[in-house]
Amino acid sequence: MIRVLLVDDDALVRAGLRMILGGAPDVEVIGEAGDGQDAVDQARAATPDVVLMDIRMPRMDGIAATEQLVTTYGDQVRVIVLTTFDADDMVVRAVRVGASGFLLKDTPPERLVAAVRAVADGEPILSPSITASLMARLGSAGDDGRATRARERLTVLTDREHEVALAVGRGLSNAEISKTLYMSVPTVKAHVSRLLTKLDASNRVQIAITVHDADLL
């Protein structure tokens, strides 16, 4: 079972999410939180696999809560940011601190369930089109030396790891990378694992950020 924690200050939104996820036989909603601090406290009591995290909440917002969860649990707890906009500034900040991706609040039920499953399995939930939008926003803040630093970080990669990093940057899944680079899915997963270590990244989204910061796509 995939254990999910719902975090939103709107009880109606939480009820809707619970109803959607409740129809999935492999997903269990283990709790609800109305703000970021409550989310951190509940995660400490019963570690979820996936957290659906609203951004704008009282007491502690979703960005601060995401950063605490990622810092404390690493990839043991994966955070999906919930937003009403494709790539607003707060979503960009959430991804930078380690969120595994984001979903619009009007995402169709079947896609929401599929996203939870994908993230629980270590896959990002950014489609190529959403990745392009997000990375455009990341790059629009101006180059404060990020490009140079990103290129330096990528120099530690082997040629094959570099190819996989570029594929991750394009928003491809493990299966898609497998077909594109003619390697098995387990081999792709092994390369991604090494990328996470070498680039000191919390998740695949941060690998993609590094690739885009380096202006390689």
TrEMBL record:
PROSITE patterns: HTH_LUXR_1, HTH_LUXR_2, RESPONSE_REGULATORY. The modification 4-aspartylphosphate is found at residue 54. GO terms for biological process: phosphorelay signal transduction system; regulation of DNA-templated transcription. The keyword GTP-binding does not apply. This is LuxR family transcriptional regulator. Keywords: DNA-binding, Phosphoprotein, Transcription, Transcription regulation. SUPFAM superfamilies: C-terminal effector domain of the bipartite response regulators (SSF46894), CheY-like (SSF52172).
